[in-house]
Amino acid sequence: MNPVLESIELASGSTLAGFYRSGHRAFMEHRWGERVLVRAAVRLHCANWDAAGYIKDASLSGAFVHTRLQIPTWTHIELNLSGTRVAAFVVRVTAEGFGIEWCEFGPPAVRELLAR
Fold this sequence. Notes:
Elements lengths: L2 H5 L8 H6 L14 E11 L2 E10 L3 E5 L9 E6 L2 E10 L3 E6 L5 H8 L1
Antiparallel strand pairs: 1-2, 1-4, 2-3, 3-6, 4-5, 5-6
């Protein structure tokens, strides 16, 4: 299991990884910032694939990535945003792309994007 999921402790005392392993699939997404409409091209990286997409909207806690790529929730990905790799987890999948949460709250490359 991913060390980031192992490090996130829930109010119940278990970790997010333990919650996921126990069979729970529903998880409420929490946004810690206002979503801002943007259009920023990104390259998506995960395991053995690389794909194109663009960020449709973003906040300090996450974003929506428009892409044809369909991957499962909880997949760890990296986005190349303005020459910087930013780590995230897929938290929601739609026909248009997927919602992500940054592994680090308000990564510098995202703060720069939001300041434009």
